[in-house]
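User: what does the whole thing look like in 3D?
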Amino acid sequence: MTAAIVIQSLASGLLMGLLYGLIAVGLALIFGLMDVTNFAHGEFLMFAMYVTFFCFSFFAIDPLLASPIVAAALFVFGAVVYLGIVRFAMRARTNVGMVQIFATFGLAIVMRGLAQLLFTPDYRSIPHTWLGGKTVSMFGIYLPAPQLAGGAVSILAFAVLYVLIKKTDFGKALEATREDAGAVALVGIDKNKVFALGWGLGSALVGLAGAIMASFFYIYPDVGASFALIAYVTVALGGFGSVFGAFAGGIVVGLVEAMTAMVLPPSLKSVGIYAVYLLVVFFRPRGLFGSI
Amino acid sequence: MLEATDITVTYAGLIAVAGVSIEVKAGEIVCVAGANGAGKSSLLKAIAGMEKAKSGTVRFNGEDLAGVPAHLITARGIAYVPENRRLFPRLSVRDNLRLGSYIYRAKEDREAPLDMVFQLFPRLAERLDQRANTLSGGEQQMLAIGRALMTRPRLLMLDEPSQGIMPKLVDEIFQAVTTIRDTGMTILIVEQRLTECLEISDRAYVLQTGRVTMSGPAEEIRANPDVRRAYLGL
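Assistant: Here's the predicted 3D structure for the full assembly of 526 residues, as structure tokens:
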């Protein structure tokens, strides 16, 4: 194995990791905000990929161009899921945790079932995109243009998210709500509004990831499952509820996956991720950047 | 300014407040005194909309507050500093104060009350970048009051501001309360420490097991032989 191959595969791993971070951050955001784990997160990703697919097949909008549209659609969808389902699940008098799990888990099953019913279980793909099939070569390594664009979108999204959380009043309201949701009314903040916007924002981010991924992954009703699993690992690695931990966690997962693929057969490429996950859970249960 | 009439609050069938009526007039400091479990905190929570009263009405400046959610009650001009202060613990003093002016985020002068807050509690100005949970009990109370003032209330409700605070700071906080009133604000304060509370109040209500057992001007309550025996240890 030459150094060039190693660098080549680490670079691909890094790009994939940036996408993993973008997939996972919405999960981390919502968990941090209100201690609710969205078990339908993978189905949100699936839904975003289909929205991208239909943007292309009906309106011939390129996935890259469609990504803001998909993010906006998912924003609305996430807010509606909070207002229509999660809000009521949180009002349960007993066993709130269980009720929340089953509410989002049930949503996942419904979404998957509906996708099979309406979109059929066929594997779809977007055949021609602006960037499809193109590669960019830098320093002797070749990177596929769609993945490179995905990495750039992810970095951009995290930068915008950073500014939003650290510099705006909405960001402060988010932080205050995650600190003590019961107390924000004391300063005139409506926690339900913050929760709904938090679900919207978290879903918009996974929507962005879905739009990017639709350009180089097959789109089918179960596509969310494997990515959701990686997203949970990413969130656990980065630290539950830590938005920027998800960024770092995603990169770690992407790199570890690439390194594993170099030494183990491709079918075992996930082994490394789960090994690292176990190590982190044993030695630093709150994750790399968790503050719980 | 505030008329709470016949307020009843129950927790899982247990009655915490049983038909209490109190009135606060503009510019007054009114003290609601009573022992632990007398229902003082529940009464304030019901007024602030943080707890749903089983029955009774709250009117603020003539408007019925029935069904108004807590965050809108804050926006209407009632600031509530709860017993356990409920600061945002991992946010800085600066951010806690800034969140206090969240309602005015679109306004140029959103931080206008800050000067008064720093005059009242100069310690806060020295600790702006410290996280709220690293402050002492007294400083946390100051920050909680400061954050409440940032919402520009017309009525400030304080739940046991002296709790868990060293005696020197208790005086400082009670002193601040009178200063706040002198700026034209109205204050409703709930306390176990009857002596200090009566000293700064205009009127007082004494609560016992969820009912008002006595009410009137602060001097009268202070002079009442029963109160002197039961609460003041005289």
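In plain terms: Chain B touches chain A through 31 residues (CB under 8 Å). Chain B has one domain: 26-40+68-230.
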